[in-house]
Amino acid sequence: MIESIVSQSGFFFLITLFVMGAFGSLFFHRNDTCANVWSSFFAISGSFFGVLFSSLTLLGGQELFFTFGKTPFFILAFSLHIDMLSSFFIFVISLIGLFCSIYGFGYVKHFYGKYSIGALGFLYNILLGSLLLVVTSSNALFFLIAWELMSISSYFLVVYDRNDPKNVKAGSLYLIMTYVGTAFIILAFLLAYKYTASFDFAVLKASAHLIPSSVKDLIFIFAMIGFGTKAGIIPFHIWLPAAHPAAPSHVSAIMSGVMIKTGIYMIIRLFLDVLQPIPLWWGEAVLIIGAVSSLLGVLYAMTEHDIKRLLAYHSIENIGIILLGIGSAMTFYTLGMPTLALLGLIAGLFHTLNHALFKSLLFLGAGSVIDQMHTKNMEEYGGLIKYMPVTAFTFLVGSMAISALPPLNGFFSEWLTYQALFQGINQLSFSLQWIFILATASLAFTGGLALTCFVKAFSAIFLARPRSVEVMHTKESSIPMQISMAVLASLTFIVGFFSSFLTHMFEKIGQSFTIFQTTSSFVSVSSDQHLQSASGFSFVSAPGLFLLFGIVLLCVFLGTRLLRYRKQKIACGNTWDCGTTLSPRMEITATGFARSIVLIFKNVLKPSIQQDVEYHDAESRYIPKSRAVTMRVENMYDIYFYRPLQKMIDGISLKSKVIQGGNVNVYISYIFLALIVALFIVL
Amino acid sequence: MTLFMWILQALFIPVVSPLCIGVIKKVKAHLQNRQGASIFQPYRDLWKLFHKDEVISKDASWIFLFAPFIVFAVTVIIGLCIPLFSSFGQSSFFGDMLVIIYTLALATFFLALAGIDVGSAFGGFGSSREMTLSALAEGGFIFSLLTLSLIAGTTNVFGIASHASFLSGQYLIPVLLAFVGFFIVLLAETARFPFDNPATHLELTMIHEAMILEYSGKRLALMEWASSNKLVIFFALGANLFFPVGLASDMHIGALFLGMLLLLCKLLGFSLVIALIESSMAKFRFFRLPDLLLASFIFNAVAIGLIH
User: A344-357 pLDDT, tens per residue?
Assistant: First the structure.
């Protein structure tokens, strides 16, 4: 049984499920219900099978290597290599895919009659299938095909709600950024091809030493731009907060939880596997990118009051945290400290899984709220905890997990990241130490700011009194949506509880890398299931923490119960209102909550405030008719990076227009000239 | 015997913390030429509050109802996780500095949510300020304990406490710098001058009191008690990590007793310092506080740089 699943045909079956789901729902596109049932059924069963397939592969430690069919081009082969790393990413994709598909089954009902459900099912299944191909392909050209499939299907999902012009604009931005990224990826692969004469990852890896170091550096820069754009590192992140909110919520969850991780996957694959050995500055660069992305990501999240944009910025932050782990892995390995390098990789992979879990949970929660409220503006929510208790509770769990509060899963991966960074400070010389101090500082402040941001998000959405009448009409989301949120929320506990076992699993994944084959991680799992760093620098025990939290909470609760005085009453009253009637306008808003942080970081965020006052009598200007205050945070990257870039490209295009005379003879002479130059170079 | 230590540690902080508050209040009263209430007054206040009826806002959700239990439980958990009068690690699996810092953040998280939950303007702004300060204090907090961890070679607070040679030789300056950084964090996290005025109610500047404004009766007692516990936790961390003198290194009744006595003296010392600070300086303007917290972080970063 196991052998038949973990095999070539097993994977083929997995892909077939998604393909059937895709084309089947296109076939049923006339009937919304039919299309939804069909596409959800295949997406759910495909994802479930994917979870089964990948967990069996991971537990068995097998590697699969096979090629689908034959192509007429010798450089292109549909070859797949499923090693431990690929299996892990298949696991993450299918796990999140499973819950998002269950959720989607309930969620897409509100699109019935509005948009084509068949098209949604088609694109959704194609997206899931292509994600699996991206993390398994072992030929650069085949990889690019899968990558394009993923980008295009996700583009159409971003513009799915096409009646809102904002979504179309976000989609265009996404498309442009993703193609710029892909162009750089192609350049990186072409450069590698020039020296290794192959697009096959295995051959690339074997002949990576043939690439001169300067070209290798160029490959690193191109790949970092290309895959960094997909992962959402700053300053290539600008598409992310626009595109993720535009897509339907279960697709946002897939995009934020899983799709941006394909960038991380390729960064790990290329820099820790294929292109090894690497120079020191690559690792340092990744560390700095990680530090900057995590800190700026969370700061921008503070300024947001659009719930999905806020979550999208937190994805940037968490990608930064993952890169801190991976960057330290790269640095340590080049410095000849493989045990620490493995620890960094484990931390990065663990955080990848954790972020996928709690970010998709949060996006699904946000989707439920938006589904009821029909707006993404948090300022119009408030008090939803009484109307949507399950969503509120799961969102609370997600907020706690993403803020790395113990004993949930986020804490343990951040703990591991901290250990890697601490050892960097502890063991390295003065000049290298500073990068790790910077990285630790950014992780520390990120933790605090993320906590603040989620207090803001949770309280603005669910707490206090409703700030608009819409809230009164909301009701709890449908059963499939509740189930997937509840299971994801319990998974954050379970992953936290079994963090030692998972760390052990991640160590095995790391050991499947050529460079870590004989290494054991700096942090090991002891016999009584706690994590312990070598030399006893630190330890933590997840089951112990759960036990301690449980016992103490129970004691405090029961102890206070026992203190009950016989005549004690609990009365219900109004919130103290200073003598006036409290209105929703007197509550703190999301913007107000974050304002002090925004002002403290005003040098980074550049907040602007604009007051428009209209007077009854424009001459005397005493009695204002209306006042409007607009608070904005300028998009610095747009103003200082993308606009000048665009201007420059425009300028060059205008200048080069000169050669476009419109005369055929001139064009023919161009062709002739080009031919001569080409011949001259070749001969 | 280990169980005895566990129970002793779990009970010590809640039992002693109201006394520290009482001492601080008494010293402040003397400095203001007042007689002041007895140093045992906080115990009576708690007892009184536990017997009072409660009024709960009708806007409150279960977050508001449960937050006091979580906040109080966290202080008990931390009390178990840190060295109080002994430096041998009966709870070494929990004594990791990151566990302590992030568990304290858990309490802050629920405290801030409870502050907003009832929808009063005071609570919301209290929470906003509290979260702003605690977010900025995080860097200094982690780095001050990290400085000690790097010197002691372990992030376990019991391990740090059993490392007795901080105040001699090459580590003197980094440890002193880290202590200054830690002390600033202490003032911020426990809502003391110049960050917050614990004696005020209904001022527009209040932070901690604004968040618990809507609590009454038993839950208010828990919140008040938890905040005094937090004060003692920070005192104990400051005393036993930076000046690990006189901690019992084994299970000897005499040594434990001596450790406990010394800890009480240290707590008294910290209380006096806090009372002196509160009597001699004014509260800072809110937007000047980040400078102080960043200074704390920079002290610690320099301290780490000086270790090697």
Answer: 999 999 999 999 99
Residue of B nearest to A465 (CA): B119
Instruction: Report phi then psi at A367, rounded to 5.
Output: -60, -45
Which among A296, A298, A297, A309 is positioned nearest to A363, based on CA atoms?
A: A309
Pairwise CB contact (< 8 Å): B76 & A570: no
Residue A66's φ and ψ, nearest 5 degrees, are -155, 165
| Cβ distance of A537 and B155 shorter than 8 Å | yes
Q: Flag if B96 and A451 touch (Cβ within 8 Å).
A: no
| Residue among A295, A414, A423, A425 with most chain B CBs within 10 A, to mutate | A425
Q: What does the alpha-carbon distance between residue B196 and residue A490 come to, in Å, rounded to a whole number?
A: 38
Nearest-Cα distance to chain B for A177, in Å, is 33
Chain B positions in Cβ-Cβ contact with residue A552 (cut-off 8 Å): 10, 73, 76-77, 80
Of B116, B131, B138, the CB nearest to A463: B116
Q: How confident is the model at residue B92 (pLDDT cuts 50, 70, 90)?
A: low
Any B CB within 8 A of A573 CB: yes
User: Do A292 and A326 touch, CB atoms closer than 8 A?
Assistant: no
Reported as half-sphere exposure (CB side, CA atoms, 13 A), residue A29 has a value of: 13
Name which of A576, A598, A603 to mutate to probe chain B: the one with the most chain B Cβ atoms within 10 A of its Cβ.
Answer: A576
Please give the Cα distance from A108 to B47 (Å, whole number).
55
Distance of CA B302 to the CA centre of its chain: 24
Under 8 Å CB pairs connecting chains A and B tally to 251
Do the Cβ atoms of A575 and B119 come within 8 Å? Answer: yes
Check if B138 contacts A (Cβ < 8 Å): yes
What are the CA-CA distances from residue A38 to residues A18, A35, A98, A216, A393 (Å)?
11, 5, 15, 47, 31
Give just the sign of the alpha carbon dihedral A229, A232, A234, A236.
Answer: positive
State how far the Cα of B218 lies from the Cα of B228, in Å rounded to an integer: 15
* Least confident range of A104-113, A596-605, B241-250: B241-250
Contact assessment for residue B108 and residue A451, using Cβ atoms and an 8 Å cutoff: yes
pLDDT of residue A54: 93
On whether any CB of chain B is under 8 Å from the CB of A303, the answer is no
CA–CA distance, A593 with A310 (Å, rounded to integer) = 14
Distance CA A148, CA A175 (A): 11
**Beta-carbon neighbour count of residue A528 at 10 Å?**
11
Q: Which of A396, A412, A531, A575 to mutate to test the interface with B (most CBs of B within 10 A)?
A: A575
Domain-wise residue ranges, chain A: 282-524+534-561, 601-634, 637-682
| Whole-angstrom distance, CA of residue B129 vs CA of residue B116 | 12
- pTM metric for this prediction: 0.94
Nearest CA in chain B to A561: B218
- Read off the tokens for A255: 């995009």
Give the ipTM of the model, two decimals please. Answer: 0.95
Who contacts A65 (Cβ-Cβ below 8 Å, separation ≥6)? A79, A80, A81, A82, A138
**Rounded CA separation A242/A400 (Å):** 25
